[in-house]
Design a protein that fits this description.
3 domains, single chain, Immunoglobulin-like
């Protein structure tokens, strides 16, 4: 009897071949479609980032919805039984499994993180952060913290899932896609975790659980100190369930704070020799050391001794930062007839009031100046906390002020202090890394004047391979120019000119202490002032070598300094400078270093 054709081996072989061909075509077509969907989704990440920065929550929601459609489609295209079965095919299967995992992870990230974050962005926008009658609504901030927590968990899981993918058997394009997506997740995940920690801390910092009291330090850059300026005025800021109240301004002088014969806080190694009696004894000298932790701990202790309970933190801000914030407010009229704007605040506060109250009675002049100063601070904060303002502009201004170290924050709580460090507002000594060496360039006015309003400064950095041992040679160049008028003796208020008689100087001469903190482990080789070599004393602050120079500049004159440093290790690093925030911005530039001029060891 003749065998039926479907009993023949070749029939089933043909059927199998046909199934494989159909399945292959099916997988191939769907793979191309999934690839297109993922390629359409990924660029939307940059679009969403830009829309978030612009504060366009409606556009963010639309872009996230579009992205979610693409990733969900990619997941569907790679998740059917045929695709999963094809993953068992040698060689091909590894590629299919990798693509399916990428599609799954992308959809998890979008649906589990991007969609909730977009919904949060629609409610937590600059307008929602605007205080009403001096109070912040904490509910949107709490909701944002929950969304960020969820997003950070999703991204962390996705990061691990992609990191665990085996791409040893995948083709180059698939391997590259996996690596690219892993890089994307790796760049976003730490940021989300940090953002989640920050937002989680905000409700408590605003008094959500219990009232918080903070001392605000108002620095005066017209009289420079390492962290910015003299700490001449203070106020107690109270936060209770989002409501903020600012107490009366308390000047550092007029007997409001005691002067102590010894530092009220422990002296770090080397600090007593470097700063002498200036450190830790007077409220007006909080900022002589370029560590805001030192300043804040001193302020906390002195405030406690003077007024009672310990405060929950210390915040510092300077007039330049206040001027930035006024970009987002309407003009503010003062009782003096002046009108505050972002352009007028600094000239009025750091120069105008000193020129206006200019009599032979220094005590009366100082009192009048402090009164105007206090009104400016109070009216500015009243406007920011309860008046008309553009929240997005104010937030942008605050970001700029923080990046320039004009806003600093400290908390005795380790978890909150870690957040301030992450945000770069902790005011720490310069921190070097494996790829970057950072030097600190700090200024201190030395005539008891307010003449730094007329000071211009620039810093240039040079490095070269000048040594046989392979260690890099660094040069830190500093130029200071005194732009006070030549007739300062008659045209400038004595309140600005300072104690030039006591210091045996001509009126208008600016004398500055300049300190350069070299990276720990490095060595300061030498220095020049206006081209002439100078003898340096051996100073250090903890493990930072410090060069300390004192220079004087007559009206119109420029003093040029150069400090040579040899790095700790071999190999080239980037060289950066952390500089005292002055009234006038500091230009920082890179200049070639001539090895022939490097100081001998």
């Amino acid at each position: 009897m003749k065998r039926r054709f479907y009993h023949r081996w070749w029939f089933w072989a043909a059927v199998a071949l046909g199934v494989v061909m159909v399945a292959g075509a099916w997988v191939g077509v769907r793979g191309l479609q999934a690839k297109s969907e993922l390629e359409a989704a990924l660029p939307l990440a940059s679009t969403i980032k830009a829309q978030l920065l612009e504060g366009d929550s409606a556009a963010v929601s639309a872009s996230v919805k579009s992205m979610a459609g693409h990733t969900a489609s990619a997941r569907d295209l790679t998740g059917d039984p045929v695709w999963r079965a094809a993953e068992f095919v040698p060689f091909v299967g590894a590629n299919l499994a990798a693509v399916r995992n990428l599609a799954d992870v992308a959809d998890d990230v979008v649906s589990g993180a991007a969609v909730p974050l977009a919904a949060t962005a629609a409610t937590l926008n600059p307008a929602a952060l605007k205080p009403t009658d001096g109070a912040f609504d904490l509910e949107p901030i709490v909701a944002a913290g929950e969304a960020l927590n969820q997003a950070s968990v999703v991204f962390s899981a996705a990061d691990k899932q992609v990191s665990d993918l085996n791409i040893s058997m995948t083709v180059g394009r698939v391997s590259a896609a996996v690596n690219e997506f892993q890089g994307f997740l790796g760049s976003i995940t730490p940021t989300l975790v940090s953002a989640s920690q920050v937002v989680d801390a905000v409700p408590d910092a605003l008094g959500g659980s219990a009232p918080r009291n903070y001392v605000i330090v108002f620095q005066n850059n017209a009289e420079a100190r390492a962290l910015g300026g003299t700490s001449l005025s203070f106020a107690l800021l109270t936060m209770d369930k989002g409501r903020i109240t600012l107490g009366d301004a308390v000047p550092a002088g007029f007997g409001n704070f005691a002067y102590y014969q010894e530092s009220v806080v422990p002296l770090p190694e080397g600090v007593e020799t470097l700063y002498g009696s200036e450190y830790g004894r007077a409220m007006s000298n909080l900022t002589v050391r370029p560590s805001f932790q030192s300043a804040a701990e001193t302020a906390q202790e002195m405030w406690k001794r003077q007024f009672g309970p310990e405060v929950d933190g210390v915040i510092s801000i300077d007039p330049v930062a206040l001027g930035y914030l006024l970009r987002g407010t309407p003009p503010i009229p003062l009782s003096t007839g002046d009108v505050l704007t972002s352009d007028t605040l600094v000239p009025l506060l750091l120069n105008g009031v000193y020129m206006r109250y200019n009599t032979d009675d220094i005590g009366a002049d100082n009192a009048a100046q402090d009164t105007v100063y206090a009104e400016i601070v109070t009216r500015t904060f009243d406007q920011l906390l309860g008046g008309e303002l553009d929240s997005q502009v104010v937030l942008s201004a605050l970001t700029q002020a923080a990046s320039e170290h004009r806003v600093l924050m400290w908390s005795p709580k380790a978890e909150e202090q870690a957040i301030f460090e992450t945000l770069g507002v902790d005011g720490s000594l310069p921190k070097s890394t494996e790829k970057t060496d950072r030097v600190g360039v700090y200024f201190q006015e030395n005539v008891g004047s307010k003449m730094n309003y007329y000071l211009k400064q620039s810093v240039n950095l040079g490095q070269a391979a000048c040594r046989a041992d392979g260690k890099a040679s660094y040069r830190v160049g500093i130029d200071l120019t005194n732009e006070i008028p030549g007739d300062a003796a008659t045209s400038i208020s004595p309140s600005i000119l300072g104690t030039f008689v006591r210091e045996k100087l001509e009126p208008g001469v600016q004398r500055m202490i300049v300190m350069v903190y070299a990276p720990p482990g490095s060595q300061i080789l030498g220095a020049t002032v206006d081209g002439a070599a100078v003898q340096l004393e051996s100073f250090h602050d903890t493990d930072y070598p410090v060069a300390k120079l004192i220079v004087s500049m007559e009206p119109g004159a420029t003093s040029k300094m150069a400090i040579d440093v040899v790095a700790l290790g071999t190999g080239k690093k980037a060289l950066e400078a952390q500089v005292t925030p002055m009234v006038n911005p500091t230009t920082i530039s890179d200049l070639p270093l001539d090895c022939a001029t490097v100081a001998a060891e």
